[in-house]
């Protein structure tokens, strides 16, 4: 919406338009007195988001200007809603005192808030990071640099990858709120990502990604001679991406951001890789059933007491370790805290009262902290000495390391305690922030302001006595200052030294020289008090900034301690064991349980199962059994147990040995992606293809049904080929759990030695199915789909008819006898013999089929060859001939027949 106006804008609107022109992509909040106002398109956009009235300026003009506004004192909440909607917000403040301004008050944008540059707690999720990411691509080779920063915690990382697929995986893992790319670039992968996750895309001038400028910017920010100390000197694209982030911060007026003191490079090979599908299918962070955190692995493991600990635990789950030493260090710390329950409880209780040191420190370094922020920081720092005492008795290396690096920060806490009142006022302008005794001059002005009320009371009493007017009042307001108010009935008694100040309907207001002198002193004192208190608070803030690196380091220590205590608490409460991890190729779990599902069952009712996978004898498990038997649960619990183990957590089992896994892949369930033009089967095939292209012999693959979205023969063929590929991969294969309803796959164990068959125990009793949820060797011979349909509430006539049809098919019947339809049953011409009408399923003659079967040498044929022969027979039947194209000889392979048939077609 554009406002065309033929009249010249007022000076105020001219100032607004000039400032808005510098921030065209942001909603401009323009300070006018006690309100932030928005005009024109900004008002039209913001009003429905904020659910406030859209009004107009110059309502009587030919082209009134749309406007809306929010109170200055409550602006943070409104800004939070705008940013949450993906908008950028430019805060335009009055940068001079309106009382001292000559003409129009000077205004400037003091801060631009974007989804990736947020410091205010209203816009942040306490236990989730808020990343701003940037991507740079090499012009010479397929190399991408990805840098990401959480300005609220100072976490700043950089990585380089060598493909678009790896880049997308890493961005999905980081999950940034805002992504920066060079202007003019519109790569396909960006659009693919935007369909899969919610983030704001921002284009920057290419100069912001320039290699040399980026390096200079980083060197200047970190005040170092070179970037070698960070280990990124050879990461050209990483440097460009990190430099662009700093350029964006500076352009949005975030200041120096002295709390950002490190840029940490990492390699994807340092951590287990979890792609988007795996994280979603395993419900690591969110549950599809509850549409949120409840029901996820995180909800079970997160017993953290601080926001810092919650964010750290999430980071550990996103980046499981591949370094055995680091895993064992975490395990030993968790083990010590599990063993010493009293110590663990004391630590968690102590952490309970700690605020978010990390984000409080960040707000202080960027000059946005309030008195209440610093008091919250003080109270948190005062907890550190008690935690230090608890750590001093610990013996595990990681907890000892925390003890040795622990900084009690007592000097910082004491400075805050000595300087600030507690509790402080909501804002600095309210006054009363600095303690009495900190500054003598301030104390003097405070006394003058504080004593004003008592002086007024004394003066009022004296004037009543001298004038004899008992209703005389001495009052103050911001507009007229101090005054004496008399009712009109008492005007005849007004002394001569009273000077009229204001006339009201029923009263008159006066001033005296004494009252005027007092007013001047008090107002000057109050103004000087505000100025001096502001100055002292800024000085205090700067003093704390000097200690920001120490504070940030301790925030990291607290986060690690909280995460370790959380894992120990979960282990103790849920009866977890410590797994043995090594560099071998075995995954062996005894009495494994699903960490989430068991939380929703009565204690002790979850049925545990053993799983063994290796690359010598039992590398692929083909798992069969009916729906509802628990196949999916067993598959997922194995993957979750491996993930938990490589985080350093204890696991839901009685014992386990786990060889390190470089990636966990999952292909689970049926879902479509219609927005991207992908059917359920296409999604399934693309996810499977991704697994086959990227898996390595050290990966763990979970397949829950393959090929169910197409015809039976196509699906079975794909599933069989996938299983063969995983067994034969690079002659060593990949550890795989494969749940399927294709019972034919169990025959693969005849020709692939490392394929083993298992089924989930059930019992068909009195035409009802009983589930035991126990894993047993061997394949299932039925799917019991009709019984499950009964349990689901399928109409009885449907399931009964299904049983009749199934009985016919299982008996070898090659045709179906359809029931007569309603019209047939009502027709007088309907005869009983009409039910003999047959719907042919197979056209060849029985004699031909008999010849084919009799030609087989059953004394020498293997089960697998017999299965292949059946496939060949079906293929001939599908070709539609009444007679065979070629008779299968007793020792001829079905594969040869299939190839010949294919050539003829």
TrEMBL record:
ATP binds at residues 625-632. Coiled coil: none annotated. Residues 699-715 form the DNA mismatch repair proteins mutS family domain. One of its GO terms (molecular function) is ATP binding. SMART domains: MUTSac, MUTSd. SUPFAM superfamilies: DNA repair protein MutS, domain I (SSF55271), DNA repair protein MutS, domain II (SSF53150), DNA repair protein MutS, domain III (SSF48334), P-loop containing nucleoside triphosphate hydrolases (SSF52540). The keyword DNA damage applies. The keyword Magnesium does not apply. One of its GO terms (cellular component) is cytosol. Keywords: ATP-binding, DNA damage, DNA repair, DNA-binding, Nucleotide-binding. It comes from the Bacteria. Signal peptide: none annotated. GO terms for biological process: mismatch repair. NCBIfam families: mutS1, PRK05399.1. Belongs to the DNA mismatch repair MutS family. This protein is involved in the repair of mismatches in DNA. It is possible that it carries out the mismatch recognition step. This protein has a weak ATPase activity. This is DNA mismatch repair protein MutS. It comes from Desulforhabdus amnigena.
């Amino acid at each position: 919406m554009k406002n065309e106006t033929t009249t010249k804008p007022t000076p105020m609107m001219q100032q607004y338009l000039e400032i808005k022109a510098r921030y065209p992509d942001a909603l401009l909040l323009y300070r006018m007195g006690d309100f932030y106002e928005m005009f024109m398109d900004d008002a039209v956009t913001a009003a429905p988001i904020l659910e406030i009235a859209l009004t107009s300026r110059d309502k009587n003009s030919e082209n009134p200007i749309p406007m809306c506004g929010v109170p200055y004192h409550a602006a943070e909440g409104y800004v939070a809603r705008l940013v949450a909607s993906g908008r950028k917000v430019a805060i335009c403040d009055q940068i001079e005192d309106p009382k001292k301004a000559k003409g129009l008050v000077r205004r400037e944008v003091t801060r631009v808030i974007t989804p990736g540059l947020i410091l205010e707690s209203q816009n942040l999720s306490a236990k989730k990071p808020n990343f701003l990411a940037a991507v740079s691509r090499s012009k010479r080779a397929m190399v991408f640099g990805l840098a990401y920063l959480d300005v609220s915690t100072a976490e700043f990382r950089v990585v380089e990858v060598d493909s678009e697929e790896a880049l997308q995986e890493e961005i999905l893992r980081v999950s940034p709120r805002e992504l920066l790319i060079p202007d003019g670039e519109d790569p396909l992968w960006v659009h693919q990502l935007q369909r899969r996750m919610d983030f704001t895309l921002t284009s920057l001038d290419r100069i912001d990604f320039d290699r040399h400028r980026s390096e200079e910017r980083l060197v200047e920010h970190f005040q170092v001679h070179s970037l070698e100390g960070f280990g990124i000197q050879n990461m050209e694209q990483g440097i460009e991406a990190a430099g662009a982030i700093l350029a964006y911060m500076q352009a949005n007026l975030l200041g120096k951001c002295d709390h950002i003191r490190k840029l940490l490079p990492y390699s994807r090979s340092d951590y287990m890789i979890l792609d988007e599908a795996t994280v979603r299918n395993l419900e690591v962070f969110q549950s599809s059933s509850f549409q949120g955190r409840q029901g996820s692995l995180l909800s079970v493991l997160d017993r953290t007491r601080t926001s810092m600990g919650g964010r750290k635990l999430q980071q550990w789950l996103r980046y499981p370790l591949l370094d055995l030493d680091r895993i064992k260090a975490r395990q030993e710390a968790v083990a010590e805290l599990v063993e010493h329950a009293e110590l663990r409880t004391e630590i968690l209780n102590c952490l309970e009262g700690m605020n978010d040191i990390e984000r409080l420190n960040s707000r202080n370094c960027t000059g946005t902290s309030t008195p209440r922020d610093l008091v919250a920081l003080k109270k948190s720092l005062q907890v550190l000495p008690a935690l230090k005492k608890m750590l001093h008795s610990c013996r595990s290396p990681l907890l000892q390391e925390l003890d040795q690096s622990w900084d009690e920060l007592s000097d910082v806490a004491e400075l805050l305690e000595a300087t600030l009142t507690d509790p402080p006022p909501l804002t600095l302008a309210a006054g009363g922030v600095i303690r009495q005794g900190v500054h003598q001059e301030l104390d003097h002005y405070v006394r003058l302001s504080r004593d004003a009320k008592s002086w007024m009371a004394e003066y009022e009493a004296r004037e009543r006595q001298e004038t004899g007017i008992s209703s005389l009042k001495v009052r103050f307001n911001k507009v007229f200052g101090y005054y004496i108010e008399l009712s009109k009935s008492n005007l005849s008694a007004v002394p001569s030294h009273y000077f009229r100040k204001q006339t009201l309907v029923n009263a008159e207001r006066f001033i005296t020289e004494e009252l005027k002198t007092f007013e001047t002193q008090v107002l000057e004192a109050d103004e000087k008090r505000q100025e001096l208190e502001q100055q002292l608070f800024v000085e205090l803030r700067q003093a704390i900034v000097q200690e920001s690196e120490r504070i940030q380091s301790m925030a990291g220590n607290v986060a690690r301690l909280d995460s370790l205590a959380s894992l120990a608490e979960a282990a103790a409460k849920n009866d977890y064991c410590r797994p043995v991890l090594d560099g071998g190729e075995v995954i062996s779990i005894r009495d494994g349980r699903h960490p989430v599902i068991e939380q929703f069952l009565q204690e002790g009712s979850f049925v545990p199962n053993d799983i063994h996978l290796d690359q010598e004898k039992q590398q692929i498990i083909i798992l069969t059994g009916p729906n509802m038997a628990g196949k999916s649960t067993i598959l997922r619990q194995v993957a979750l147990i491996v993930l938990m183990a490589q985080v350093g957590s204890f696991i839901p089992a009685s014992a386990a040995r786990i060889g390190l896994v470089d990636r966990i892949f999952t292909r689970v369930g049926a879902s479509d992606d219609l927005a991207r033009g992908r059917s359920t089967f296409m999604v399934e095939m693309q996810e499977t293809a991704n697994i086959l292209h990227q898996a390595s012999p050290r990966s763990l693959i979970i397949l829950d049904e393959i090929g169910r979205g197409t015809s039976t023969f196509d699906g079975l063929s794909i599933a069989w080929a996938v299983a063969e590929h995983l067994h034969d991969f690079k002659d060593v294969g990949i550890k795989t759990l494969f749940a399927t309803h294709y019972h034919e796959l169990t025959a693969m164990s005849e020709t692939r030695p490392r394929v083993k068959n298992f089924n989930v125990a059930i019992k068909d009793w009195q035409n009802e199915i009983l589930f035991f949820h126990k894993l047993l060797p061997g394949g299932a011979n039925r799917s019991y789909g009709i019984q499950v349909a009964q349990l689901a509430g399928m109409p009885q006539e449907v399931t009964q008819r299904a049983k009749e049809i199934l009985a016919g098919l299982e008996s070898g019947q090659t045709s179906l006898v359809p029931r007569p339809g309603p019209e047939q049953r009502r027709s007088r011409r309907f005869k009983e013999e009409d039910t003999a009408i047959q719907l042919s399923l197979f056209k060849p003659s029985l004699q031909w089929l008999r010849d084919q079967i009799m030609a087989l040498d059953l004394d020498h044929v293997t089960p697998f060859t017999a299965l292949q022969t059946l496939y060949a027979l079906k293929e001939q039947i599908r070709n539609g001939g009444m007679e065979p194209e070629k008779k299968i000889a007793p020792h001829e392979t079905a594969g040869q027949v299939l190839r010949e048939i294919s050539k003829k077609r």
